[in-house]
Design goal:
Length: about 210
């Protein structure tokens, strides 16, 4: 059985858990990370030298990096609806997964650390204001994409890209600041909220 190492509150671990739910893939999860078993232990570092969760072990195969993991699981155990085999359709899914990991993730980092984690080193009002503006600008990119597709981020059907994007949208709505109105994002979030996988793992790790 698939072994997942990482705490369920981690947004990156939740990508993997949600992907497993969409695929119908059974797994065993072990608590690793802050507050649990240390990712700096020799045992964990032998699996991932970056000391980060998640890590999976699929038989004798070990893999880290959350977006790589969900691609692997979808390609091996999922179907073409979740992760297309046709080159252009798959590229569209990968494009939005990569955009979430790079541009969107970077845009919300300061605001999240300030307003949710209450990090003492992220309390500069000017930097926070700039961070919120940057985050909103990137969410407006997502708004236009969802208004264009009328459904999901890479097209009319749910795909692997909606897992990391959906978790970022959850973070958007759960962070307390003055957000612009994004009706297509709000509708999208409601669609995601009806999925069993999201109800299990999408809402900050709680049903």
């Amino acid at each position: 059985m698939l072994r997942i190492l990482g705490k369920a509150s981690s947004i990156n671990v939740r990508k993997v858990l949600w992907a497993c739910a969409e695929i119908g893939l059974p797994f065993e999860r072990e608590e690793w990370g802050s507050g649990f078993q240390s990712t700096h232990s020799a045992e964990f570092l032998a699996l991932n030298p970056n000391a980060m969760v998640p890590v999976i072990q699929d038989g004798d195969f070990t893999l880290w990096e959350s977006n790589t993991i969900i691609r692997y699981l979808a390609a091996r155990y999922g179907d073409a609806a979740l992760y297309p085999t046709e080159a252009r359709a798959r590229a569209m899914v990968d494009q939005w997964i990569d955009w979430q990991a790079s541009d969107l993730n970077s845009s919300w980092r300061y605001a999240f650390m300030s307003l949710i984690r209450h990090s003492p080193s992220h309390q500069d009002p000017e930097a926070l204001g700039a961070g919120c503006v940057q985050w909103s600008r990137h969410m407006q990119i997502l708004e236009r994409q969802l208004a264009s597709t009328g459904a999901y981020v890479a097209g009319s059907g749910f795909s692997l890209a909606d897992i990391p994007i959906g978790l970022s949208v959850n973070r958007w709505f759960e962070t307390p600041f003055d957000r612009p109105s994004l009706p297509a994002v709000s509708d999208y979030y409601q669609r995601l909220s009806r999925r069993p996988g999201f109800r299990l793992y999408g809402n900050n790790g709680t049903p």
